[in-house]
Amino acid sequence: MGTLEQGKDSANGVINHNKPLSLKILQFLLLFLGLGIGFSILSMCMLRFAQVQNVLPMVQSRIQPCYQETNGIENWIRPPSNLHHSMNDTELLWRASFVPQRKNWPFKRTPKIAFMFLARGPLPLAPLWERFFKGNEELYSIYIHNLPSYKSDFPASSVFHGRQIPSQVAEWGKMSVIDAERRLLANALVDISNEWFVLLSEACIPLHNFSVVYRYLSESRHSFVGVFDDPRPVGRGRYNKKMLPEVKISQWRKGSQWFEVNRKLAIDIVKDEVYYPKFKLFCKPACYADEHYFPTMLHIQSPHLLANRGLTLVDWSRGGAHPATFGKADVTDQLLKKLTEGHGTCVYNNQTTSLCVLFARKFSPSALDPLLKHSSKYLGF
Length: 381
Ligand SMILES: *[C@@H]1O[C@H](CO)[C@@H](O)[C@H](O)[C@H]1NC(C)=O
Ligand SMILES: *[C@@H]1O[C@H](CO)[C@@H](O)[C@H](O)[C@H]1NC(C)=O
Ligand SMILES: *[C@@H]1O[C@H](CO)[C@@H](O)[C@H](O)[C@H]1NC(C)=O
What we know:
The protein is an alpha/beta fold. It is 38% helix and 10% strand. The chain has 12 helices and 9 strands. It has helices at 2-12, 21-60, 74-77, 89-96, 126-133, 175-189, 210-218, 263-271, 275-282, 289-301, 333-341, 368-379, and strands spanning 112-118, 140-145, 194-201, 205-206, 260-262, 312-314, 346-348, 351-353, 359-361. The strands form 3 sheets. A 4-stranded mixed beta sheet has the order 2-1-3-5, with helices on both faces. The chain is globular and about 90 Å long. It starts with a helix and ends with a helix. One 2-acetamido-2-deoxy-beta-D-glucopyranose binds at residues 209, 211-212, 380.
């Protein structure tokens, strides 16, 4: 009760005007003490931040800390120690378009697959992917593009920890999705070891183990982009004559958004200043840039490098504008058998094969448990 009264009095300034000088000095000192404590806490936080941002990833990838930095070749080989950067898109695309011109690498380069997740928020199927990646640490890297408002909270032990790239809002069907995909490619290109670039969503799963996927991509002479000439209104009907002379209607192509490209095509995409402005101006809904820009541009520039098919299986059998989503009840032995076995045949390096897809979508978060339960039997990991 007494303390309460005292507090109230001083708050009202009752004892203030007959306060001795020494008390005022004491108050002053206390203020400084408070400020000092505030600063200590702030600097501790900043130290923690620096550890999370720099020191930890460095320890993980066994890279020298900055104070030992040399001007040697390692500066050009090692991936950035963290994915945060302050470049805007113009700067990032410019940086990512740098290409070595000599054929011989002056160091041992182990080519990696960049798995690029174009997601809105969390990755509910992450535990399945963790299992897929396990044991192949030297052979892949991961990049995640989220809504900028979403902050991921993967634990430090997760392969997804700290793999979020600086992102912006991407609206489905609009050019901002292309921007997000180019942002993913550009961030991945900065790591000189990335050789193959796979675009995935949070609803995708791998259908085979990592070694099968790695061999399939690394031994292919083609990149897996679906590219076809669709005469219907939903194909050629979306073409706009104002794209001439860069894009003729006979060159207009359509394909699925979920692509796999090699380093050469990834660079062609980030460096494109010819087709991008045309699509930005003249491919707006009901023209969906994500179904036309990459297929058309790559078909015009490098038709011989394309497999003309994607690697991601989507179930359109239920009809409608959106593919079927598999939930808990759908993931049965039967479905997994069907997904991993029967897709007819396709051409791979000029030979007929029955291994035609490596990934499948769409799977809802509830599918995770049955997927984990069956993964070793059907998916091979
Ligand atoms: C990025 O910054 C540069 C330099 O300030 C500017 O010229 C460019 O327009 C910016 N690009 C974007 C996409 O904001
Ligand atoms: C991956 O799957 C293939 C084919 O199912 C199998 O032959 C191979 O042993 C598996 N590799 C690993 C590392 O599990
Ligand atoms: C691909 O296969 C066809 C027929 O089997 C053959 O005529 C052609 O030369 C092959 N092309 C390459 C590049 O091997």
